[in-house]
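Hi R.,

As promised on Friday, here is the backbone we talked about, encoded as structure tokens. Could you run it through your design pipeline when you get a chance and send me back a sequence?
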């Protein structure tokens, strides 16, 4: 696993705070386009639209928003973007429950 440097940590902290503050409904309204792997934040968090980590996908991460069954959904980590529910990033945390 790659160590996160100070700059990447600050980016992650800032986007997480913004994403969590906005809440699910606001994120759904703001999300307009699919997250691209070449997005700077996506690169910093090693986002991939197809998870290679068994049992870990955006669809079962605590940061995912929106309704189950949608192929692309808003994520608190990437405000204004839609992530592939089969994707993964290094901020992945198992959804409680």
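Update: got your reply. Pasting your designed sequence below so it's all in one thread:
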């Amino acid at each position: 696993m790659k160590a996160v440097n100070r700059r990447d940590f600050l980016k992650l902290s800032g986007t997480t705070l913004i994403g969590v503050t906005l809440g699910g409904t606001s994120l759904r309204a703001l999300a307009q386009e699919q997250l691209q792997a070449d997005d700077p934040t996506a690169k910093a968090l090693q986002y991939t639209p197809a998870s290679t980590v068994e049992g870990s996908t955006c669809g079962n991460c605590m940061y995912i928003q929106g309704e189950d069954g949608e192929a692309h959904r808003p994520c608190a980590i990437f405000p204004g973007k839609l992530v592939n529910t089969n994707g993964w990033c290094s901020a992945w945390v198992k959804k409680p429950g």
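One thing I noticed while checking it: The domain at 6-84 is CATH 4.10.490.10 (High-Potential Iron-Sulfur Protein; Chain A).

Thanks again,
M.
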